[in-house]
Amino acid sequence: MMKKILTILLALSFALSTSAVTRITCIGASITYGATLPDPARQSFPGQLQTLLGKNYEVNNFGVSGTTLLRKGNFPYWNTPAYQQALKSKPDIVFIDLGGNDSKLINRAHYDEFEGDYHALINSFKQLPSHPRIVLLLAMPSFEKDTTGIYDPVIVNQINPHIRQVAYDERLEVLDMHSPLINHDDWTPDKIHPNVQGSAIAAKKLYDIVVQPRDTTFDIFKSIKEPYKTDSFYGYPCATFILNGRECKVVKPKWAAKGHPWIWRARFWGHEPQTDIALLERGFHVVYSDVAELLGNDEAITRWNNFYKILHDGGLGQKAVLEGMSRGGIYIYNWAAVNPTKVAAVYADNALLDLQFWSDSTLLEKDFNLTYVRQLGALKASPLDKVAQIVKGGYPMLHLSADEDEALDPSKNTLLFEQKVKALGGSITVIHKPGFKHHPHSLPNPAPIVDFILKATGYAVE
Fold first, then answer.
1. Could you give the CA distance from residue 436 to residue 441 in angstroms, rounded to a whole number?
2. For residues 194 and 40, is the Cβ–Cβ distance under 8 A?
3. CA dihedral for 293, 274, 167, 94, sign (positive or negative)
4. Contact, 336 vs 343, CB < 8 A?
5. Distance of CA 65 to CAs 8, 27, 155, 278, Å?
6. Has this prediction a pTM greater than 0.90?
């Protein structure tokens, strides 16, 4: 009888442990609440997050329209009953979506207190017995033209940078909710509040980081033997150090995805960083090794091989995603041609793929030990000369191509490269940008690039 009772108790204990519900608390203003939606309870982004997550999660919406993060704002969230209810909700995860209303003219005089107020708000949740995971959300875009209201330039240049700094100081996750909607003003009928589709995009972004497996113990900085300094890369810790006389950078996410994936920026560090930031949110590392202006020659490849060894030996995955803008295309593909088993995918952007179009002949002669630059063709030193080696890697490639690129003729670079890759059975996708010139690179909303990389590396969340 005792054995039977023990078996029943163990079964009951197991059932209780497997049925535990994860409590998610969402605090914010009208966008969190779901203002202007026909059914806020179900159609707001917290409501849609509940639908995506299902019965093992309990998502509570404590959004209050019009509220500010600032305690001296015109309607502080601090003074609402919802704030007290949120503190009592025993959360396992807290999403904070405040800042949009703080961009109003009436509140701008208090920005010197913004970060202090945000730290205090975070601390009030950190002290809870449930010790929740806290995630900060950047303010979504406003398409209003009224400069005294919720005004996007203020959000971009003041509010969101403050939020990123707080995330860096507190070592908390921060999600860019601005970029995913910046090209969808049609999803904000009143120019401020997202409709059902816009709220769905926000809900999916939160869903992805809730369910993605995480490694919270991995720290790539421990593998850096050289002295380094640390600062913020859009809210993420960035280590900068010198390796063999050249600057290197490694940015670590707030948690690492399983397998420790990474993206390697070839050139123009920090330029149009939205893809890098979106991947950091998903647990990717972002790295850079300065090889300017070696143009993918043997020295550049050797330096990158040394950098790769440090990072892979330190725990990053065997295969890196390579990112090359403009002449960065030369760097990534020349390295990939020599290291085909170390590449997971390639993202190239208005890429230089033929060195004969590089304007500085003196530099070319120096980099490749040429007597005359016309010897370059015989040297076969460009990615267009190495398509066979590149295709053997078997990795997918994504290219962005501005159709009116005045700096690099697409027909002699990206489009010719695409033809050669496809002729050899390689996997390449080209996204055309009609009407665009060489600049700007990337996309304001990097979702197509990020989705490609996540799918190519196996980190897409269905």
1. 9
2. no
3. negative
4. yes
5. 49, 11, 18, 28
6. yes
Domain 21-211 shares a fold with domain 216-457: yes
Backbone angles phi, psi at 285, to 5 degrees: -90, 155
Token code pair at residue 57: 């999660």
Domain boundary assignment for the chain = 21-211, 216-457
CATH of domain 21-211: 3.40.50.1110
Residue 449, Cβ density class (10 Å: 0-12 exposed, 13-18 middle, ≥19 buried) = buried
Q: Which amino acid is at 91?
A: P
CATH topology of domain 216-457: Rossmann fold (3.40.50)
Residue among 416, 358, 407 nearest 385 (CA):
416
Q: Report how far apart the first and last C-alpha atoms of the chain are (Å, whole number).
A: 47
Mean pLDDT per 10-residue segment, the chain (462 residues): 46 49 98 97 98 97 98 98 98 98 98 98 98 98 97 98 98 98 96 97 98 96 96 98 96 97 96 97 98 90 96 97 96 97 97 87 82 68 94 97 93 97 98 94 96 96 82
| Sign for the pseudo-dihedral over CA of 95, 233, 256, 225 | negative
